[in-house]
Amino acid sequence: MIYYVNQSKDPYFNLALEELLTKDDSITEEILLLWQNDNTIVIGVNQNTIEEINNDYVSEHHVSVVRRLSGGGAVYHDLGNLNFTFIFTKNKDTVRNYALFTQPIIDVLQKIGLNAKFSGKNDILVDGKKISGNAQYNHKNRIMHHGTILFDVDMSILPQVLKPDLLKLQSKGIKSVQARVTNILPLLANKISIDEFKELIVRDLQETKQAKIVYPSKALIAQAEKLADEKYRTWVWNYGHSPEFNLTNKVRIEGKGTVDVRLAVEKGLIRSIKIYGDFLGTLGTKALEDKLIDQPYQLATLSSIISEEDIKAVFGANFSKDEVLSVLIR
Question: How many CA atoms lie within 13 A of 249 on its CB side?
Answer without folding.
Answer: 14
